[in-house]
Structure formats: structure tokens, C-alpha cells
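Page 47, continued from p. 46.
Same chain as before, 255 aa.
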Amino acid sequence: MIVYAGKIIGFVLGLGFFAALLYGTKYLRNREIRPIPGLIAIEEAVGRAVEMGRPVHDCPGGGGLTDYTAQQTIAAIAIIGYVAKLCAEKGAQYRVSINVAHTLPAVEEIIRTNYRKAGKIEQYSPDIVRFLPDQVSLFSYDMGMFEREKIAANILVGAYFWEAIVLAEYGGSVGALQIGGTARQSQLPAFVASCDYLIIGDEMFAAAAKVSEDRAQIGSIAGQDICRAILVGLMVIGLIAALAGTKVIADFLKI
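Result:
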């Protein structure tokens, strides 16, 4: 009976989370997302690049749009659009390097769109984006470009694999202000060790929603916050119950 009760409770919780997401999407669309230090630092990084007369480099990582990293890549592309707009408005040189072919059209289009929004479409050039066919080519190009142009800022937000440590370490070696962000836990230590600012895990999706001003995304994030609050509440109740000598909560949540 306990097993069946656990399944029923799990089903009810699932419905509750779904309802929370729907509620957030419909009624919390105008909620303000808290300030994200890593996102705020992007404007500082672009301003620094303008003052120094050096480029801003951006890379969305090695993730794509057709696999489990798609959500992170979409968030990274939204942030690229935000950086492109800042660079256009402030007159900063912009460099973007990618090594996943099917993301190239999306990246080029969002950069072009944001240069147009900034009223600086004449500053847009296809040469802003460099496509490199694999990781080794990406490393070789970026390391050479970092050294030649002495980039002032290095923005590494997206689904990162072992390119994280290479790009972050070499960006640091030329004195760039670095902002790193990923939801891949295995690569966060590389950014912690090498970057000045971090956008950690879910902050990346919140940052993307904030810069894109997509109210549906903002509402969805608010709904996810409600789900997290419910889970934390259940954990606290379960802990208190366990300390009191009863495992009734844990038993009923078994599926």
C-alpha cells in the first residue's frame, strides 16, 4: 500500500508542478528577475573594451541545437544578441567564434538583428562571426586571435566541454575581463578558477529571459521557482520528521 501511495503522491506532485508552471507563465509574466552579477558585468566588459580600443570575444560553447545541450545553446545565443547590441551601441569591436555548423545561421541572424535594433546596421559585417569546423581549429584560431588583438573581454556562456579551460586560461593570459557561464557542472570549476564573473547553472536561463524580454520565459522561470520552493519545503518537513524518529514522509514519497 505504501508503494501505491508513493506513486499517487508522486503523480499529485507532478500535477502540482505542472500547475505551478502554468500559473507562472500566465500570471507572473511581469515579474522582475533579480540582478545577475555576471550579466551586469557584460556591460562593464563592453565599456572596458571601448576604452582600451580592443575587441570583445564571445563563444557559445560546443553545444548544439539538436541534442541535450539545446536549452543552454539557445540561452547562449540570446546573450550573444545582447552583447551584439551593446557592442553596436558603444562602438566596440565584436568577435564571435563557433564550431557547431547548424548554430551559425542563428548566431549570424541574431547579431544582425541587434545591430539593426541599435541603429548601427552599417557596422555589421559577416566577418564578426568565425566558423571553425572542430575544437582544435577553434582553439588554434582563438589562441592566435587573443594574442594578436589582445582582447579586452572574453564572454564564455553556453554548453561547454573541455574547451572551457583552454579558452578561459588563454583569455586570462592576455588580461581579458572574463565572464563564464554554463549549466554543465563538470566545467564550472574551470570557470571558477579562470573567470572574473560567473553565471552559474539556471542563472544562464534567467539571464537569457531577462535580455530577450520574453515574458513567457520570465513567467516560466517564476513557475520553476515555485516548484523549487515546494521541493525545499518537502525536504525540510522530511528532515524534521526524520529527526523526530518517523520516516512517514520518506516512505510515502517512495515510488
